[in-house]
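User: what does the whole thing look like in 3D?
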Amino acid sequence: MLWIPAGLALALVVLPVVGLLARTDYARLPELLTSSASLNALQLSLVTAVLSTVFCVLLGVPLAVVLARSRSRGVRVLRAVVLLPLVLPPVVGGLALLFLLGRNGFLGYLLDVTAGIRIPFTTAAVVIAQTFVAMPFLVVSLEGALRGAGDRYELVASTLGARPWTVFRRVTVPLLLPALGSGAVLSFARALGEFGATITFAGSLEGVTRTLPLEVYNQAEADVDSAVALALLLIVVAVLVIAVARPRAVEGRP
Amino acid sequence: MTLHAELELTRGSFSLSAEFDVPPGTVLAVLGPNGSGKSTLLGCLAGLFVPDDGVVTLGERTLTRTPRLLVQPHDRGVGLLAQDALLFPHLSVVDNVAFAPRSRGASRVASREAARHWLSEVDAAELADRKPAQLSGGQAQRVAIARALAGEPDLLLLDEPLAALDVDAAPAIRGLLRRVLRAAGNQRATVLVTHDPLDALALADHVLVLSRGRVVERGLTRDVLSAPRTPFTARIAGLNLVVGVAEEQGLRTAGGFISGIPAPDVAAGEPAVAVFSPGSVAVYPEGEHSAGSPRNTVAAVVGALEPHGAVVRLRTVDGDGWAEGLAADLTPAAVAELALEPGTPVRLAVKAAAVAIHPAFGP
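Assistant: Here's the predicted 3D structure for the full assembly of 617 residues, as structure tokens:
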């Protein structure tokens, strides 16, 4: 009799979306979606989410390799730390970033005094917040793939005379590509939906830090129809991500 | 180049202690059951682990001298061929084989050219443009051999290279390995790790028998396998070997003819050995001619009877033709029924289907 709870679970996922679709004012939809505030938010969201995904890949791949391949004991502790943003409420993450990089944070103060750089409440802050919350998705999916594959191909490559960097470039990374694809898609989706850390660390300035989720929240107070239209847009983007990239984690394949 | 290794290593409750030399152009087989320390030994040679105490030298170079790994795996000039081919799935066959030359700095064109040369050496030139996923197990292992050889290693390590192949593919790959390992003029030292005495017999000059991390026996392959001096070796490797010259359907020996099934790489007129297990030898009372299917019968005299697990191993001391020093496994009931004891004349019978004929080499 699993189908009763299974049906309930499915309803829990599908019905809210149906509710949203039912509530949408289709006549005003084009007008609502093409308002300058909406377009600004959409553009900002896409740009920052792409940038965050790039940073996740550049930083997350080496991190996953180190975590999966290192034999030292301290690495186990490190792995738990990497998972922190995954379990931490995003608002807490945003606060933490603020107290590191804000004007009173020790790194923020250093940057301000030495280089005149202020990060909070800029687009850079949005990208940092999104990378912070999205990177664990990439690292976890890559690390699992690396552990599953083992290091046998790498050992063979090294006996064939490949130096460690060559092994990484010509064997480790190409073998990781499928997992990297699904990890990157998950990170992108998470970055696109980021709200809590962004609003705490970067604020909500139109065209600078107000991404789509923030715009939805903003409009929910003022113009519900507009908020619903934007929400619909986010759903369409999410469905596109699943359809186009079909991450293996989403399809349930190993 | 000569490989010299002295290894002492303890991992938990397991310990390994071995010392050996492999002269250039020769093959040493390390024979032992699973868990006897064979793979650990290869790992020490390849530079994957540092032994607790030991030295590995290859020619003039000292690769490991505890406590330090002096030469990293990628600088050792060591080729490794494992049980699974482990071809890089994202590269075509030719690029797999070109991997080693490319890693050593050859240009893309030159390394592909070298790869095609090595592929033709292993009769796999037509596979060059395929992906590893499109190969059978035997084809993949052929390509893996080419890939290991393309690195022109001074030391070649073979880790159960035939264990993962199906029965049809194994003889052809064994024959291929024989050809490339024994190619005239090569200066490579080869260490073959296996649990199959047949691999050792077909490929190796010398054999070293490992039990629980200790060397229990070593010597010329044929001597060790045909006349094991320890019960352990007899149990894992006790085979009957008869030397002679290969013929169409068997082996011509000094004292007669043995019918058997020749391996694919046996050429008539070449030196060869007939191999059969003690379990496939039937024993009859003297004078009683078996009229059944066994093609090979020979008169012999019981030399010794020793318990061997659940069976009794009979060894002959004397006999017509090729019956000298053969082993036969019998149940205790059969020994009692035939009233066998040292000195009893008997007649041995071996089915031709149980006899494999392999090329012989070495002294």
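In plain terms: Chain A touches chain B through 19 residues (CB under 8 Å). The radius of gyration of chain A is 21 Å.
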